[in-house]
Amino acid sequence: MRVATFNINGIGARLPALLQWLNETQPDVACLQELKAPHEKFPEAAINDAGYGAIWHGQKSWNGVAILARGATPVELGRALPGDPEDVQSRYIEAMVGKLMVVCLYLPNGNPAPGPKFDYKLKWFDRLIARGAELVASKHPVIIAGDYNVMPTELDVYKPERWLDDALFRPETRAAFARLVEQGWTDALRAMHPDEKIYTFWDYFRNAFGRDAGLRIDHLLLNPVLAPHLRGADVDRVVRGREKPSDHAPTWVELDDSF
C-alpha cells in the first residue's frame, strides 16, 4: 500500500501534473496541500475520472487540503484541528481509508519570525501535539502526512547556517516537531534513509533544483500500530523537474497491508 503526500502549490495550475503523477505511480492514498482554490473549485470530476475518490477542505487563494483514495471514497472524520474554533484557515483534515486513519495537514509557514505569523505557527503546533497525543495511542493504524514547514535537523536542509533565523528552522520550530515525534511517532522517510540528505522541496529561484539546494519539509509520521508495517519511503524527484512544477515533490511510504 502506497501513501503519498504532495504540496501541489495550486491545484488549478498543476492539475495536469497531478493527474500525470497519479497515473504513473497509482498511490493508494494521496494527501494534497496548498490547493489554493475555494471549496467549489476543487476538480472533483477530473480526480474521479482518474480513479480516485476525494474529500477536501478548500479556501480561496491560499491553503486547502485534500485526501484522495484510489478506487474508494475516504470517510471523513473531521476537517479542523481541535483547539481553536476561531481558526478558519483550511489546513487539516482526517479520514478513514479502509482500516487506515489518514491525517492530512498543511502546517503554517510562520515567516517572518518573530512576529504574529510565527506565534500562530507555534500555537498551531501546540494544537497538533495535543491531537497527536490522542492519535499516537490509537488502536487504529494512523498516518499524519503533509507539509509541516519544518526541517527537523541540519541533515534536512541545504546549507543550514543560512536558515538559522527562518521560521522553518528556528529552534522553537524544531523543538515542537521533536516533541511531536517523541510521543512515539516514526518519521518514515528518515527511518528508511537515516543518514542521507534527502529533500522534498526546492525553491523556484537561483536554480535551487538544479543545484539540489533543497529542504525536507514534507513528512509522513506513523503511529506505533502502523510503524511495523513500513516497507519503504522515498521522494518522486522527477516530478519536480518537469515543466511548470510545484516547488515540492511527492513524498511517499510503502506499507504492507496486513494491519
TrEMBL record:
UniProt keyword terms in alphabetical order: Hydrolase, Magnesium, Manganese, Metal-binding
PROSITE patterns for the chain: AP_NUCLEASE_F1_4
InterPro entries for this protein: AP_endonuc_1, Endo/exonu/phosph_ase_sf, Endo/exonuclease/phosphatase, ExoIII-like
Domain Endonuclease/exonuclease/phosphatase per the UniProt entry, residue ranges: 4-248
Biological processes per GO annotation: DNA repair
Cofactor(s) this protein requires: Mg(2+); Mn(2+)
EC number annotated for this UniProt entry: 3.1.11.2
Site features described as Transition state stabilizer, chain residue numbers: 149
Annotated Mg(2+) binding sites: 7, 34, 147, 149, 247-248
Residues flagged as site, Important for catalytic activity: 218
Record note on cofactor: Probably binds two magnesium or manganese ions per subunit.
SUPFAM superfamilies reported in the protein's UniProt record: DNase I-like
Interaction with DNA substrate, annotated site positions: 248
Entry's Gene Ontology molecular function annotations: double-stranded DNA 3'-5' DNA exonuclease activity; metal ion binding
Entry annotation: catalytic residues: 106, 147, 248
Family stated for the protein in its record: Belongs to the DNA repair enzymes AP/ExoA family.
NCBIfam families: exoDNase_III, xth
Protein name, as recorded: Exodeoxyribonuclease III
